[in-house]
Design brief:
This protein has an 8-stranded parallel sheet. The protein has a 5-stranded mixed sheet with strand order 11-12-13-14-15. A two-stranded antiparallel sheet has the order 1-2. The chain contains 13 helices and 15 strands. With 354 residues, it is an alpha/beta fold. Helix 5 links the parallel strand 6 and strand 7. It is 40% helix and 19% strand. It folds into 2 domains: 242 residues, Dihydropteroate synthase-like (TIM Barrel), CATH 3.20.20; 92 residues, Sulfite Reductase Hemoprotein, domain 1, CATH 3.30.413.10.
Length: 354
């Protein structure tokens, strides 16, 4: 089964990053620091920037958090999104502080007059709003009518969309997230038939690092293969930096983005005479700083390794206490096992530098 053509969505711009249209699928995350602690929040965002994060969202639970946004924004280089729930006042404060985007459900901030006030402020500064519908926090009336179903997610999104459209506001992106992968897929498919706004995709509350990565990859990859998705977040119960790693691995595996190394490593078997698991993990860690898209192979057999990974840019084929360093299938030299990682890293860094 091949990929479907990418859905034609409208394009918005958020702090210089284009979302939708023909723009690449962008990767974002959310801080888990206290937003009022500017130093901690900026420190985490800078680590996320280095990991490849392209947009960042921060919680704005109160006025003190809102009033920290301008200082945070002044110290980072990626677009800043304020996460607002229920308070139009905090939304207005966030806009005044110069954020690049809001995550805000207009139906949850009160009267039409309050929605109008927030929309007017966003229009003035061309600030997009993400409508974020979550399967765990649906309106009771919708649940009574449709149950916890994809239809309920879609109807909730449409209600919020109409509130913004009624104010002639169209700088919108939408997310329909559930912890249920099939329900999420169905909801995005249904909404794609009704609107052309860009989609923020992901599987919410996906779980811990490994389980959440698997669940997220299943849902996000299926959506992207159907041409659905303009920006994404992998939601893990783990450090946010892990979310960025998993997101790019998903995109790289689908051929949609290129960033950093692609590690090719063979499974262990009875012929393996090198500590392959440890070796592969060391290589992955040692080359985590490389941003160029390179294929790196770590193979467990000195006989078949170079041939099996001939399309890799660089690699190791380990044997009994020794191993081969190779490039594009060509053996460069033979080294003791404990020298392999250092030699491989040196080869890669020299290549990148030149």
């Amino acid at each position: 089964m091949g990929f479907k053509a990418r859905r034609v969505s409208s394009e918005i711009e958020l702090g210089g990053v284009k979302i939708g249209g023909q723009a690449p699928v962008s990767v974002q995350s959310m801080t888990n620091t206290d937003t009022r602690d500017v130093a901690a929040t900026v420190g985490q965002i800078k680590r996320l920037e280095r990991a490849g994060c392209e947009l960042i969202r921060v919680a704005v639970p109160d006025e003190a958090a809102a009033l920290s946004l301008a200082e945070i924004k002044s110290k980072i280089t990626i677009p800043l999104i304020a996460d607002i729930h229920f308070s139009h006042r905090l939304a207005l404060l966030a806009v005044e502080q110069g954020v690049d985007g809001l995550r805000l459900n207009p139906g949850n901030i009160g009267s039409a007059a309050r929605v109008r006030e927030v929309v007017a402020a966003c229009k003035e500064r061309a600030i997009p709003i993400r409508i974020g519908v979550n399967g765990g926090s649906l309106d009771k009336n919708l649940v009574e009518k449709y149950g916890y179903t994809p239809r309920a997610l879609v109807e909730s999104a449409l209600e919020h969309i109409h509130l913004l459209e009624n104010e002639n506001f169209h700088l919108i992106k939408i997310s329909l997230k559930s912890s249920d992968v099939p329900a999420t897929l169905k909801a995005y498919r249904q909404l794609a038939e009704k609107v052309d706004y860009p989609f923020h995709i992901g599987i919410t509350e996906a779980g811990t690092k490994l389980r959440g990565a698997i669940k997220s990859a299943a849902g996000i990859a299926l959506l992207l293969a159907e041409g659905l998705g303009d920006t994404l977040r992998v939601s893990l119960t783990a450090p946010p930096e892990d979310e960025i790693f998993v997101a790019f691995e998903i995109l790289k595996s689908l051929g949609l983005r290129e960033r950093g190394i692609e590690l090719i490593s063979c499974p262990t078997c009875g012929r393996t005479e090198v500590a392959l698991i440890e070796l592969a993990e060391k290589v992955e860690t040692a080359l985590a700083h490389i941003r160029e898209p390179l294929k790196i192979a770590v193979m467990g057999c000195v006989v078949n390794g170079p041939g099996e990974a001939e399309h890799a840019d660089f690699g190791i084929a380990g044997g009994k206490g020794v191993g081969l360093i190779f490039r594009k299938g060509e053996v460069l030299r033979k080294l003791p096992e404990d020298k392999l990682v250092g030699a491989l890293v040196a080869e890669v860094e020299n290549y990148v530098a030149n």
